[in-house]
Specification:
By secondary structure, this protein is mainly alpha-helical. The chain is built from two helices and no strands. The chain has a domain of 34 residues. It comes from Methylobacterium thuringiense.
Amino acid sequence: MAKIQSEPRTDTRPHHADTPPLSATVRRHLGKSLRSHYAASLAEPVSERLEALLAKLQGPKG
């Protein structure tokens, strides 16, 4: 079976290019909603397990 080669994409638009971008009003509303939704979790202390994982990602200091 022959492979069909497609040409590389030259545009940088998302896959659904026919969908109009979100208006500034909608983006502001989404931003406010997400910030209020996650505000409580951002105020909570980081668990010891998460701190340990972050320390591993940072690697040895020196």
